[in-house]
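User: Can you predict the 3D structure for this chain?
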Amino acid sequence: MPVQTRRGCSLDCSYCSTGKIEGRTIRRRSPELVVQWMARWRKAGIERFYFVDNTFNLPPSYAKEICRKLIDHDLKIRWWCIIYPMGVDEELVRLMAMAGCEHVSLGFESGCERILKNLNKQFTLDEVRQISEMFSGQGINQMGFLLLGSPGETRESVEESLVFADSLKLDTLKITSGVRIYPHTSLTKIAVNEEIISSNDNLLLPRFYLAKGLEGWLPETLKNWMAQRPHWMV
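Assistant: Here is the predicted structure, written as C-alpha cells:
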C-alpha cells in the first residue's frame, strides 16, 4: 500500500522533475494522522506499506517522528522507503528498524564524486558508504541505484561507479543506462544546447540523454559486469 507523507523537494537534482511538479516547498502531513490512516488499512488486512516520498529521511526530524508514531501504535507492519543519502544517523536507522522498515532504496546514482557534483547531489561517497553500513548493521535490505550516462560521464567514471557499487553491501542494484529528460530541468537545457532535443520538444514521449562515446561500450560493459552479479539489473 503506497503512503505519501509529504510533497515538495528543494534539492534541485539536475535531471529530476519532482520540484517542478510538486514545488520546492515541503508540505508535511501530521505524523499522527499518517499513522492513524495506516492503522485503518492495517485493520483491513494490509501488512506491507511503501513510503513513496522521494526523500523519506528529509527532514530527519520529521522522519524520526513518523517512526516513533509507528512504534507507539505497534501496527506490526513491514515497510519500504526511498532514502536520499544525506541526513541519516544511527538514531534514525535504529528507529526505522524498530518501526518495521525492511527495505530501503538508496539513490546514490553515481560512484564518481565529479558526476555527483554535475548532478547537483548534496552528498559524498563517504556518506553513502557510511549510511549503507548503518542500514546493513540493522538488517535492513538495500537496493542501490546507478544512473549512468549523464553529462560529463566517461568510461572512467562509469567504471568508478561500478567499482563503488560493488563495494557496498547491497542486496540488489538497479542500473539505468541513459537519463530520462524531463521538462524544465537543468538536463533539458543541456540536451537542447547539444541538439539532442529541440526547444519545442514537449517530452511527452520519453527522450534520454547518453554522454557521447558510451553508446556501444556501456551496454557491453554492463553485460559483462552483470554476468557475475545476479543481484544487478538494468
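Residues 2-233 form a domain with the TIM Barrel fold (CATH 3.20.20.70). The chain has nine helices and eleven strands.
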